[in-house]
Specification:
Helix content is about 25%, strand content about 25%. The chain is of the alpha/beta class. The strands form 6 sheets. Strands 1, 2, 5, 6, 7, 8 and 19 form a 7-stranded mixed sheet that branches. Strand 11, helix 5 and strand 12 form a beta-alpha-beta unit. The longest helix is centred in the last third of the chain and has 19 residues. Helix 1 packs across helix 8. It has 2 domains: about 180 residues, FAD/NAD(P)-binding domain; about 150 residues, 3-Layer(bba) Sandwich (FAD/NAD(P)-binding domain), CATH 3.50.50. It binds flavin-adenine dinucleotide. The site of flavin-adenine dinucleotide has 37 residues, from helix 1, helix 2, helix 8 and strand 20.
Length: about 400
């Protein structure tokens, strides 16, 4: 059995739905098929505020069916294999689907098993994570339940989605302890594989000052490799050039950002680059070997900060270029690496980082966005979710 779609999209998350919605608004666009196994769509950026007790996790989820555009056929299945030589994919249920153009957007894999003891402990005994719908409630439960001790926030040594998220929850926690009058009884530690608090110096300057002012302990170039629930110990390897000894820290709350990688079915496919990501041109989003394949979002090799904000700027480029490809025209649209990271630094405080390739600062507002602002917090809490559900996923922004 074989079904043919002129445009076939793999993944109906942020990137897949945004591309489908944009195509839906183009009258001359051909038929679109979208393969997505989940009947739920998640707005993941709000999980930071769920973990911080600001909103309930239910606000982050809506039925996938409500966001499948009118002229798109939803294939409720998961892709298992790619056969780009024959313009075909095979699904887990054994269906073979063919295409003229393929858009690959299945997101990133959370690799819980890469940290010894993590899968068995997550959500229990103080170990939590904002990184999935299933675990995000445990973050608020453990942070709110803490009266004294040590709260540790980790950042793994792999690429991750939203590079700011590991510290956003730390700033919320730090503020929470202060507001509850227990800040002097809780030690707050950021243990990160990165070499500095943030990759873009314009924003790192402010954040480094906050680290001092708010008495945050830091361990940089440290990667979590093991969680020992019985002794409540977190074990970190050194990833410095001159390797140091393992660091073992006792925790009462351990917020883990799990290691992440390209999904297995992408990694083992002919579409992958050496690191496992879908191998595309960093400006056009077109595959480097198969010209009728495009990719965007977290699964792509695009060297930007992996965020939904980046997808917002990638999607119009992918759509313009795939339509040009179908029409036999030159691919003219270019993505400049734009990404945005709303760095929550406390309740009612936020630094809106916006930058492109090579850390080039690309701010929207006519003021210095490297400073904490209440207005940007309001944007994160109310503006961005509404922009996402009503604008981006409808192909309108
Ligand atoms: P996803 O939105 O994850 O979608 C991937 C889709 O592919 C899923 O629906 C999945 O079911 C589907 N899929 C998987 N496997 C298959 C398969 N085999 N076949 C077919 N479909 C498949 N971004 C921001 O811009 N700002 C933020 O403040 C922000 N904060 C974040 C905080 C947290 C805690 C997290 C976890 C993420 C945050 N992000 C933020 C990142 C943002 O959510 C992602 O970068 C964005 O969702 C990526 O879009 P995507 O379409 O590539 O992947």
């Amino acid at each position: 059995m074989s079904d043919h779609y002129p445009i076939l999209i793999v993944g109906g998350g942020t990137a897949g739905i945004t591309v489908a919605a944009r195509l839906n608004l183009i009258e001359e666009a051909p038929e679109v098929g979208l393969i997505e196994p989940s009947d739920k769509h998640y707005y993941q950026p709000i999980w930071t505020l769920v973990g911080g007790g600001v909103v309930k996790r239910e606000v982050s989820v809506r039925p996938e069916a409500d966001y499948i555009p009118e002229r798109t056929t939803w294939i409720r299945d998961a892709v298992a294999d790619f056969d780009p030589e024959h313009n075909a994919v095979t699904t887990e249920s054994g269906k073979r689907l063919t295409y003229d153009v393929l858009v690959v957007a299945p997101g990133i894999k959370l690799d819980w098993d890469k940290v010894k003891g993590l899968r068995e402990t997550i959500g229990k005994d103080g170990v939590c994570s904002n990184y999935s719908f299933d675990t995000v409630n445990s973050t608020w439960k453990f942070l709110d339940g803490l009266s004294e001790g040590h709260a540790i926030f980790t950042f793994p040594s792999t690429p991750i989605k939203c590079g700011g998220a590991p510290q956003k929850i730390m700033w919320l926690a730090e503020d929470l302890f202060r507001r509850k009058g227990i800040r002097d009884k809780v030690r707050v530690t950021f243990a990160s594989s990165t070499a500095a608090i943030f990759g873009v110096p314009h924003y790192a300057k402010t954040l480094a000052k906050l680290v001092e002012q708010r008495d945050v302990h830091t361990h940089f170039e440290r990667n979590l490799i093991e969680v020992r629930p019985s002794s409540r110990e977190a074990v970190f390897e050194s990833i410095k050039e001159q390797k140091e000894e393992e660091l073992v820290l006792k925790y009462d709350v351990l917020h883990v950002t799990p290691p992440q990688c390209a999904p297995d079915f992408i990694r083992r496919s002919p579409l992958a680059d050496a690191d496992g990501w879908v191998d595309v041109d960093m400006y056009t989003t077109q595959h480097n070997t198969y010209p009728n394949v495009f990719s965007l979002g977290d699964a792509s090799s695009l060297p930007n900060a992996k965020t939904g904000a980046a997808v917002r700027k990638q999607a119009p480029v992918t759509v313009a270029n795939l339509m040009a490809y179908l029409n036999g025209d030159e691919l003219k649209a270019r993505y400049n690496g734009y990404a945005s990271c709303p760095l929550v630094t406390g309740y009612g405080r936020l630094i809106l980082a916006e930058f492109g390739y090579d850390g080039k600062v690309m701010e929207t507002f006519p003021f210095d966005q490297s400073q904490e602002r209440y207005s940007m917090w309001v944007l994160k809490l109310y503006g961005l979710p509404s922009m996402y559900w009503n604008g981006m996923l409808r192909g309108r922004m």
